[in-house]
Every structure is written in C-alpha cells, then in structure tokens.
Design a protein that fits this description.
The complex is a heterodimer of chains A (about 350) and B (about 375). By secondary structure, chain A is mostly helical. Chain A has nine helices and six strands. Chain B folds into two domains: about 240 residues, no CATH class; about 100 residues, no CATH class. Chain B contains eleven helices and five strands. Chain B has a three-stranded antiparallel sheet with strand order 1-5-4, with no helix packed on it. Chain B has a two-stranded antiparallel ribbon with strand order 2-3. In chain B, helix 7 crosses helix 8. The longest helix of chain B has about 45 residues. Chain B is elongated. Chain B starts with a helix and ends with a helix. Classes of the chains: A mainly alpha (about 350), B mainly alpha (about 375). At the A-B interface, helix 1, helix 2, helix 4, helix 6 and helix 7 of A face helix 1, helix 3, helix 8 and strand 2 of B.
Chain lengths: ~350, ~375
C-alpha cells in the first residue's frame, strides 16, 4: 500500500522536489551575498553613514524578500490544490476507485495511508520553504526592525500547520465534489477563507494584550503628538489618547489636531472633544499669535492629564503565538481529515 | 457555436461572477468609510493650520492596511486563477475525456471551434480582471491620495487596466499548456509557474526600459545629500557622499547620483581634497539616521560634537562648485503610457500563444 501510494504520487513528488531544489539554489546564492553585504556594510558599520548603509541594504533585498514571503504564503494553498484535491477526486472521476477499493485493503485504510503519507510530505515541503526563507531573511528582518510579528504567517512553524490543513481541505473537497478542477477551486476558497478568518478574528485574542500607559505631553507647542515608548518589535494592536476618566478623546490614535487660534478665547482654552481649561486665560496679544496661543494650549493639555494608551503583544510572545496558531490548524486538519475518511467509507 | 461555447463555460463563469460579486460587496460596504476617514483627517489637518500629526500620515493607511493587502492579493492572484481554472481545462478536459472526438466531427471546423472558445473565454478573462482592478482602484482611491505611489513596483500591477492584459496572457498560457500536455492537472501547474515567471521577468527586468528615464539636476546642499564613512571613524575613515532623491508623488525614481558636467562621480582624490575633515570628525548623535527605529543604532552617541556636520557642510559646498545631483526617474504623467505598453506586451504574448494553439490544433492533434 505504501508502495502504491508512492507510485501514484511520484510525478507530484518529483515536481515538488525540483521546485524545492530550485528554491534552495536561489536562496543559498542570494543569501550568501546578503550575509556578506550584511557583515561588510551594515553590522560592522559604526559611523554616521550607518543610516544610509542600512537603507541601501534594505533597498537591495526588500523586493526579493517580498517575493519569497509571497512564495511561503501560497505554498500551503498549492499543496492543498495540487496534492489534496486530486487525491480522491481523480480516482472517482476516472473510475479507478472501482479497482482500488475492491482490493484486499479496506478503503478507509487506503484513504488513511494516503492522507498520512502525502500530508506529512506536504508539511515537510512547507516546513523546508519556511526554514529557508526564515534563514534567508533573518539579517534583513533585523535591519528593518519591524519585529517578529511582521512576518508571522511566512516564518517559523505555522506554514507547516497551514499546509496540513490545506491538504486536508483539498482531500475533503475532492471527495465531496468528485471533480478535480471543481475541488481545486473549492480548496483555494475554503483554505483562504479560514486563513483570513483566523488572522482577523482569532489570532488577536489568543492571549490578552498588554497595555502601556504613558503621560501625554507636548514636545512642540504647535504640534500636539506623542509616541508611546514601546518595547522593540511589539505587535501594536490599538493606540488611543484617553482622559483621566479613561475615555478616548476625539482625534487620531497618537494625537489630536488643535488650531491654537480658535482654541484660545476670553473664556480660557477649549479644545473641542478633548477638554477645556477655563482657568488659563490669555493676556494681551497672546491669543492672536500661533506661538502665544500654542503655549496656552500646551499648558492646558498638561493640566488635563491625558495619557497615551497602547495595547500590544510583546515580541517575546512570538513563539507562544506560533505554537497556539499551529495547534489550531493541526487540530482543524485532523478534524477535516477524519471527516474525509468517514465520507469515503460511506461513498457508494 | 457561440451558444454552445457559453453552455460549456457557464459553470466556471458563474463561479467567477460569484467571486466578483463577493469582492464587490465587501468593497462597496467598506469604501464609503475609507472616504470618510480620509476626509475627516484632511479636515482636521486644515483645522489645525497644517500642524496636526494627521497632516503627515493619514490614519486611513493604518486603519485599512490589512484589508488593503487582501485586496491587492486578490487582484494579483486573479489572472493566475483565470489561467488555471478557465484556461488550462478548456481543451485539456476535452482531450482527457475523449469528447474532442465528438466535438471535432460536427459541422463546425475545429479551427472555428477553437477560435470561438478562445475569443469568448478570453474576452471574459480580460473583462473579469479589468472589472476587479477597476473596483479595487475605486475602493483604494483614498489610500492612493494618502500615499501617492501608484508607479511603485507593487502598486503598478493593481492600478489601471494592466490586470486585464495579465489575465488574457494567463488564459492563453493555460489553453496552450492544456493543449500541448493534454492533461488538466499538469497544465494548471505549468500555467501557474509560467505566469509567475513571466510577471517576475517583466516586473524586475523589462518594465524599467519601456521609455528612457528623465534626468533632472539639482544643486547640492546639505539637505539633499548624505554621506557614508567606511573605516575607523575619528581617524582615517574614507568618506563617500550620496544624493537623496526628492519626494516625487506617483513618480518612479530610479536613483540619484552625484556627478559633474561630464557625468563622472567624484573620485577618491577629489573627495580627499574637497572633504579633508569628513572622515576624522566625530558624528553627532542621530545624524542621518533616517531608517526608522530599526536602523542599527550604533551611531557614536558619546562625545558628540558638531564637527562632522561642519565638515560635511564644507564638503558639500566645495563639491557643489563642480558637481550636482542627477535624479533619474519616470515622471508621474507617464503612468498611463507604461500601463498601455505593459498591457500591449501581455496581450501580444497572449495572441502569439493563441496562434500557437490554432496551429497545434490543425497540425499536431489527430
């Protein structure tokens, strides 16, 4: 049975192996160049030109990095479409199931063997892709400094779990629809829908985010904005400016707009939607210049005791998040695969 | 024959139309909110006299970044899906199942049969991708206004009508692969790989040469130049200066170089003469650190003096007597010309493939 599975799967395995080998050649050649550049221009840089050296390094490799990221993003989908969907559908479509399922091996065992064998193969392919791309881009990620969550879907172990799930979805689509091409389309749609749903609605809630609260101060009286001090590489989920009662004030995530000339009047300073300071009254021509009125607005903002509140996931949670999301997709894959075995058993 | 072609294509057409409707509904629901977020930020900027934080970065880009990536991904993937699911099975399915024997012994000649199918589904491919691209452009117009870069390597493919050209090419590639390989599944895989390869080659190697770029010269000043030091700072570092391209909205900037009237960059000898102190002064903290938080923060922050800034200003002033910055770019108003050229390129490639199909059907299949 193992031998038969391999024989039927041979051409797809050869295509995948050739693609992996091609990817490995590209990754090693460009990657060694990237490492050389990193050590000779960026990591050894100590002078004032470091900013430019880092920018040049990013400019040189960012496009290649996004192509590789896109590749890892689609590999699980391809495994589901080209390995999963035809697995049962092709036998049903061409009628060979009549022969295959009347042999000494029970059809549940036939399905299970194929599922496990090809599923493990697909996971290995996705894992190798992720490993190569993660290795290739690690110096680039370090220089860009966007944190590990920026490449969550294409680095680490989650691509392996995505591949397992996509493969199982493909098999089920093939068994249910019984047509290869239709099952392939269905597999893409199903896999993409679940992936998007998990990214949008599940991943942010895997762990309760941390909150950092820092006093909202004004560095330049004409520019009311502030950046919260975040630990490096955090995944920022939400930012707001809140008053002491805990309510978010009008305006954007990191600040709000004020026109000093209209905010300051004889009745004190009033910042619409934020708060007012009746005790800060302009004297003389103070209210008529941007500079003078701006200083009053700055005093008022200090007096309102606003805070900048940021909720985030720290970079140290990267691997727990990877583990949780992998478990979710492995669990889904096993459930879908079990359904596939059950469905094939009762097909007639 | 047209009615028959439509009957065979109906199922796939319905799936494609349903996909377009789903995307269209999502875009139509969220689109007005994008406009209102963008407009209120613009109003807040105006109210603050141009001083607000939202003047520099409109919040719409952050709020809708996730959905924007999704929309871009759909527009980029759509032509490949059309090639795989509309193109590859078109003939391969008939060959695989043997139905071509029936189809080709009817009153309609097999050339005509092929041309009707190619024309019908090819036109549908062009229209579907074009319509999707049009919807995405309408939806993303506030995002484009907030960060004008439609000539950028990633943005070019999802703006304008070039997606229609990609789709037509991918479709023809799928039909050709299916006809030659006679099997649907391998044809789909070849279509995907071939389409990605063609897009990669054109994007990275061909597009930049459609028209020769425009160059304009800029007088050197400390604000539009930077410099890089190699070697031990404070003693004998070698300095090189570089120009920084100005922000040109929607233009495609190839690069900026420092050259003299003869087009030569300053040599090491020129640099040493014009900038004798640049390599020996100690840089002040944060100078030219423009790479954002991720830039390696290894600038010398202890014992900083203004010395290197003075040395740099002196250097640039001396160099500017004979040298200037040459900025090479494609102006923003060439966008539609580039779109037309790239669309034409892919349409012609698609027509060539269609010709190959016709020849193959007439001469190679019996």
């Amino acid at each position: 049975m193992l031998w038969l599975s391999f024989r039927q799967f041979r051409s797809q395995a050869i295509v995948a192996a050739a693609a992996l080998a091609g990817l490995a050649v590209v990754v090693v050649i460009v990657g060694s160049q990237l490492l050389t550049d990193f050590h000779s221009t960026v990591s050894s840089c100590t002078g004032a030109g470091c900013g430019n050296a880092a920018n040049d390094f990013i400019d040189k490799y960012a496009l290649m990095g996004s192509w590789l990221d896109a590749l890892v993003l689609v590999v699980p989908g391809l495994i589901g479409v080209f390995w999963g969907a035809p697995l049962v559908a092709r036998e049903l479509e061409s009628g060979t199931f009549r022969l295959a399922w009347t042999q000494s091996i029970a059809r549940a065992r036939w399905t299970l063997t194929k599922l496990v064998l090809l599923g493990l193969g697909g996971m290995a392919v996705a894992g190798l892709c992720s490993l190569m791309v993660t290795w290739w881009s690690s110096p680039l990620d370090f220089v860009v400094g966007a944190g590990p969550f920026a490449h969550f879907d294409t680095h680490g172990i989650v691509p392996v779990a995505y591949a397992a799930f996509a493969f199982a979805v493909g098999v089920v689509a093939g068994a249910v629809i019984r047509k290869t091409v239709g099952a392939m389309a269905m597999a893409i749609v199903g896999f993409a829908a679940v992936r998007v749903a998990v990214v949008e609605w599940v991943r942010p809630h895997l762990m309760a985010p941390l909150t950092v609260r820092s006093p909202f101060t004004i560095t330049d009286p004409r520019r009311v904005q502030v950046g919260a001090h975040l630990p490096a590489g955090a995944w920022v989920m939400n930012q707001s400016v809140v008053n002491p009662a805990g309510e978010a004030v009008r305006g954007g995530a990191t600040g709000f707009a004020v026109n000093p000339l209209t905010a300051v009047g004889p009745g004190g300073v009033n910042i619409p939607g934020v708060g007012s300071c009746p005790n800060i009254k302009p004297s003389g021509a103070q209210a008529s210049t941007v500079q003078g009125a701006g200083n009053l607005v700055a005093r008022c903002v200090d007096q309102l005791h606003l805070s900048n509140v940021v909720t985030y996931q720290p970079a140290s949670r990267y691997w727990p998040f990877q583990a949780y999301e992998s478990l979710i997709f492995f669990g889904l894959a096993i459930a879908v695969a079990a359904f596939a075995v059950w469905w094939v058993r009762r097909l007639n | 024959m047209i009615a028959f072609g439509w009957r065979q294509f109906r199922g796939q057409a319905l799936v494609g139309a349903a996909g377009l409707v789903v995307v269209g509904v999502v875009l139509a629901i969220t689109g007005p909110h994008l406009v209102s977020v963008y407009d209120s930020a613009v109003a807040a900027c105006r109210e603050s006299g141009g001083q607000s934080a939202v003047c520099n970065s409109n919040p719409v880009t952050i709020t809708y970044r996730g959905l924007q990536y999704g929309v871009i991904a759909v527009v980029l993937v759509m032509p490949a899906l059309i090639g795989m699911f509309w193109g590859a099975p078109l003939i391969a399915h008939e060959l695989e199942t043997g139905t071509f024997r029936l189809a080709w012994t009817q009153s309609v000649s097999r050339t005509r049969w092929l041309l009707v199918k190619l024309g019908l589904v090819g036109l549908a491919s062009f229209l579907a991708a074009g319509l999707l691209s049009l919807m995405a452009n309408w939806w993303g117009s506030p995002l484009d206004a907030a960060s004008p870069d439609r000539f950028g390597a990633g943005n070019f493919a999802v703006h304008g009508f070039v997606a229609g050209g990609y789709a037509l090419f991918a479709f023809a590639l799928g039909v050709t692969a299916g006809l030659i390989l006679r099997r649907t599944l391998p044809a789909m895989a070849i279509t995907l790989a071939g389409f990605i390869a063609a897009r990669f080659v054109v994007t990275d190697w061909v597009r930049a040469h459609y028209m020769s770029p425009v160059t304009f010269t800029q007088k050197l000043s400390a604000s539009n130049t930077g410099f890089q030091l190699n070697g031990p700072i404070g003693s004998h570092a070698t300095a090189s200066v570089m120009a920084q391209a100005p922000g040109l909205p929607n233009a495609w900037v190839y690069g900026a170089r420092i050259v003299n009237d003869a087009g030569q960059s300053p040599t090491t000898a020129v640099m040493q003469q014009a900038c004798p102190n640049l390599g020996t002064a100690v840089p002040p903290p944060g100078l030219f650190k423009k790479g954002g938080p991720g830039t390696l923060g290894s600038h010398s922050t202890t014992g900083a003096t203004g010395g290197i800034q003075d040395a740099f200003t002196h250097c640039i002033n001396t160099l500017s007597a004979n040298y200037h910055a040459a900025v090479t770019y494609q102006p923003a108003n060439r966008f539609w010309t580039f779109q037309a050229i790239e669309t034409a390129l892919f349409v012609v490639l698609g027509l060539v493939l269609a010709g190959v199909c016709t020849w193959w059907v007439r001469h190679r299949i019996t």
